[in-house]
Fold each of these.
Amino acid sequence: MNSNDSDLQIAGDILSVQHLLQPAREHPATVAEFAGLARSIAADRAQWEHLVDYDATSRWYHRLRTGPGYEVWLLSWIPGQGSGLHDHGDSSGVLTVLDGRLTERAGPTGAIARELGAGAQRVFAPGYVHEVVNDSLEPAISLHVYFPGLTDMPMHGAQCAAPAAEDVVPA
């Protein structure tokens, strides 16, 4: 081997060997890709802004998209609305605040509080216990990606009763 040989001369150009390239994925498959999907949807307001509604009696939610093994939900929160302390069963998730401010209280008792403004993102694993609340004086909008899709949302705390699987409300 000559010291003047470059890596390209030694190994060859990977772009010329198509079978070594990974094909581009049509759908996300990793946590980073799901977080990226949420960021790309958040950036494209025309995709979701016209769908948002606000409900004074309960949180409004809309399934925005589904794919193999995941689903994307859009939620609105008027001041004072919250999810209650819960987990997402076997699903992992990405929570992204699109507009306004939300407070996330995490842990078995909800003792760890984080204020999340527009653009903030939280990633969580199955069994992660939290509550999301709009403690502000303005409405808020959030985007939730669940993988696999949300089938269970057990509530935590003495005052909460776990909903049936068909009554699952994303949070």
Amino acid sequence: MSDLLRPLAVATAGMTVLAAAVWGAYGLTGLQEGGSSGEAVTLYDPRDARQVAGTADDVFAGTVVRRSGERDVYGVFSDLYAVRVGHVFKGQLRGTVAVSYEQGHEPLAKGSSYVFATGQVPDGQSHAVLLETTLTPITGLTAPARAPSLDSAPASVPAMSTVSAPAGRTVAQYWTWAVRHEIDVSPR
């Protein structure tokens, strides 16, 4: 190989490796067609309540008081709600708290109750529903627990073991169990 072609070949090989690495990272983050900005940071399986509980700062049943606006939390556009905290499964929340929920989901209904798994927003004044979790109204803590849907996570989330509510468990029993058996998947 000539002295002129050798550096060109090495540079071409290097660019090929770099391009492959960038393309691989792009594919792993879920930012290709249909992805959202939050998908790149989700380390837990949103279908596994134990992983959701382990990732959340707070897990509680609450009732939506009102929609109070919109916000942008690090590029994730969210609706902001005032939520009255009912039963606390994890954390110390009390009273009415501000909760943001990623836009693109069905809006939360005023007067409806949900189990919220949230993380504290850096402003310290509000909480955000964990990305890629889908809130489903509950009729009460003694209602039968529903297993998470296999379709509740986007295609970019790998199919891990879906942990469903054992038969006969109520919403309260299921989330108490999930918090007691939480799995923290965050890197330390």
Amino acid sequence: MRHLTALPDLTDLSDVANLSDVTVALVPEATTGTVPLVGYLVLAPAGTQPAQLSELLSGRGATPTVAPAPPAAAPAPAGQGIVVDTEERTVRVDGELLRLTYLEFELLAHLAGHPHRVYTREQLVTTIWGYGPVGDQRTVDVHVARLRRKLGAAYRERIVTVRRVGYKYVP
């Protein structure tokens, strides 16, 4: 695939055949009577014929479709470990519902959503609490301690302290 440094004028699509190895192109503003395509991406497989592209861009033939979203990762089966459901905002430990405060849930969901990544206390305050680091960062330590207590002896070691840095989640 080659990258375009200047956008071609696609108002006349007769020259699209020369772009057959381009799979992504930005389209300039469309002319009157067509669908405005300012800032949209056009994804076309290599070898797409100019007639097919012109029909797509003018809105006369093929209707643009949105590719289906990839299937969501299936949560771990109930009864096996820690399951964080961000849509329902619930956490289950070995199938049992865990009662967490808003900030405890946010903290666990964030750490579990980025396993093995180390976060400083300042980063966690900014991300979870929503404000910049102010004074003592012990509030993160207190919430982590409460979270570990609620996770129980079998799972408290999943939240690892990285000395003099912060915390990470290890599944």
Amino acid sequence: MDAGTATLREADHLIHRLLDRLALKEGVFACTHLFRTDERRGTTVSLAVPGPDADAVWQQLVDLLPKGAGLALADRAHGPDDAVDTARLAAAAPPASGRAVAYPGVAHLTGTVTVADLLDRTAVERLVVLGAPDAELPPDSEVLTQDHVRPEWRDGVLTLALVPAVGGRLAPFEVPNPTPCCADHA
């Protein structure tokens, strides 16, 4: 879907608002996708819903999304052509690419968790430490989640990039509230 969100943060908020309104079961994946066309750039959202729920969710999304939003699902489309075109790109992206905001097990990733728990209790399949991509992580290594864990699809594998943190721990590379570039000298 393309609802006109420009930033990852806006798309994250859209995903959470939609998931709060859609009564979906476990197993949903919601991802963000950056796009750029000749006319505009922004962030689209893909929503993977298991089983027969897709038809019901389609109609709910048509009703919930703002005027001008584009939706695409297989041969169905709703909204302006340019928004539908970017929505189709988002729909085709996972599992090759995309940044996961909602995925099975994400609710378990609060506070500090171990590597073993992260891998066992969520859809995340691979952990990569920046600067040491082949590092073996002991299962009892601690990950400081900051309640914000956004893995990415990389070649069909949901992968979380980590960085070293205080006290020999690890933390997700993406932080919840990044300081905008040039914020200190605007």
